[in-house]
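Exercise 7b. Backbone tokens:
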């Protein structure tokens, strides 16, 4: 199913100064107490029984004032250096690219990376697409969609990423009414 065929539902997240639209079948994930600190800065959506999921994060201000390309490159290096430890997996063998992009006349970047997520004794290939935006007011946002590599779920995840990115409204300038 393509993004145009999905019925989209907008979520205005005033605490993040963001509006994200997701397919109606995707539901906001419940936050556990361990993740309560991140809960103020991010929201996650998933569809029941579907391994494709997405997350919108409003990041802290960056004292180095780096742009979205540098931010995406740092995340790619982090994945290549061993990934996200402490969670349910350790990423390894990450391969990816960072491409400059644009979001409503604001500099942005797209990270496209594939890695193997170690879960117990098995490693599964994962495809991650992430979109990084730093607004004119220096508000920093990322949207990531993660999906299994290969097959219809990967195609769905890519379509989801494009649809969310195209409908995204970020920062006070875009979300204030």
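Sequence design result:
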């Amino acid at each position: 199913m393509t993004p145009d065929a999905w019925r989209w539902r907008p979520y205005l997240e005033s605490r993040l100064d963001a509006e994200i639209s997701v397919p109606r079948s995707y539901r906001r994930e419940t936050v556990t107490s361990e993740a309560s600190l991140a809960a103020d800065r991010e929201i996650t959506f998933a569809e029941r029984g579907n391994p494709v999921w997405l997350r919108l994060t409003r990041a802290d201000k960056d004292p180095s004032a780096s742009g979205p390309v540098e931010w995406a490159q740092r995340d790619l290096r982090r994945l290549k250096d061993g990934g996200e430890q402490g969670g349910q997996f350790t990423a390894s063998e990450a391969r990816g690219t960072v491409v400059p992009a644009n979001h409503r006349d604001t500099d942005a970047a797209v990270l496209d990376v594939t890695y193997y997520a170690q879960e117990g004794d098995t490693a599964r290939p994962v495809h991650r697409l992430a979109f990084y935006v730093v607004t004119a007011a220096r508000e920093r946002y990322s949207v990531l969609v993660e999906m299994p590599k290969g097959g219809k779920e990967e195609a769905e995840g890519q379509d989801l990423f494009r649809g969310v990115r195209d409908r995204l409204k970020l920062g006070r300038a875009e979300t204030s009414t």
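Instructor comment: The chain has four helices and ten strands. Residues 151-167 form the longest helix (17 residues).
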